[in-house]
Amino acid sequence: GVKMLIGAKEVFGPDDSQKSVFQEVCPLLISLLDGYNVCIMAYGQTGSGKTHTMLGPHSEDNFTVFTEPQLDEGIIPQAVRELYRLISMKPPETHSVEVSIVEVYNNEIIDLLAKDESGAVLGVKREVMTMTTGGSDVPFLSYEYAKNPTDILNFVTHGLRHRAKHGTLVHAHSSRSHLVVTLTVTTKITTANRSGKEAAHLNFPYFAFFLSGMSGVTGAALRETSFINRSLSALSDVLGALAEQRSHVPYRNSKLTHLLQDSIGGDAKLMVMLCVSPAQRYITESLQSLGFGARARQVQRGHIRKKSTEKKSSPSIILLL
Ligand SMILES: Nc1ncnc2c1ncn2[C@@H]1O[C@H](COP(=O)(O)OP(=O)(O)OP(=O)(O)O)[C@@H](O)[C@H]1O
């Protein structure tokens, strides 16, 4: 019933494996190598399973990296391994991957891979700008070159550890900030031009993983919570404007939506993983999440640049109970 209600593509229950969830993501990796920007968004209340879905089993913010695939690993490790497998089938030296990890906390963008002169990682505040092309960019953001899946997963672990430690976040729960892990693939396509000489083109599609959730805390954490809720309502407003094909999309109303502008608008492919508790006591939160999914579902992806014959498509919504 829920599936029909919000038009979810697939619904997964407690007995479904991480592998079966990943099957939904696999085609998006092909799209990435075809040149599309892709974004997978995990959305849901505190404790609903966003981190479990995206990374796999973890204790607090500690996530262990394994060189070999693990039985229960989440979407990020599986996607990263599949990405390198796909790249290994391409001509050598044509694709390279860089990773950036950003936390959006109290409407600030924090670069979780920024280092000081001694190489120690520290969170540094960055700004998001609108470029002359209309897209968004974060000047000075750290991008780390990653030669294999383990490299990427190590950076993610570093980022997560740092996220848990910086500033007032010591006691804070992860749901009080948004985490954005982005993989940028540089593709060198060599084509023979009219004079018979080879010309190289560079293309930078990227794959963003985004974890976000609302929480119902009070007291000291209220400030963080109100920022979380404000950026999520800004996200909802952006999806609403895109769904109604309004000429003005309010990306710049929050740092989060400004940062994610190129991942949710334009011809980017968006997949929303709604993490929803099956428990009755969370019915309000669950309905809120389903409402968000329903709104995201109505967005029509615009400006398809690849094949003009391709139909406009909507984001895929995956429901995890
Ligand atoms: N599908 C699942 N199978 C087994 N355990 C799960 C599953 N989903 C979540 N859990 C467990 O439930 C707990 C909460 O999940 P998780 O930390 O992923 O939630 P979250 O949405 O990331 O929370 P927060 O927003 O507070 O960070 C964890 O102990 C996790 O291991």
Automatic annotation (TrEMBL):
SUPFAM superfamilies: P-loop containing nucleoside triphosphate hydrolases. Residues 1-299 form the Kinesin motor domain. ATP binds at G44, Q45, T46, G47, S48, G49, K50, T51. GO terms for cellular component: microtubule cytoskeleton. InterPro entries: Kinesin-like_fam, Kinesin_motor_dom, Kinesin_motor_dom_sf, P-loop_NTPase. GO terms for molecular function: ATP binding; microtubule binding; microtubule motor activity. The keyword Cell membrane does not apply. GO terms for biological process: microtubule-based movement. PROSITE patterns: KINESIN_MOTOR_2. Keywords: ATP-binding, Cytoplasm, Cytoskeleton, Motor protein, Nucleotide-binding. It is found in: Cytoplasm, Cytoskeleton. Belongs to the TRAFAC class myosin-kinesin ATPase superfamily. Kinesin family. This is Kinesin family member 25.
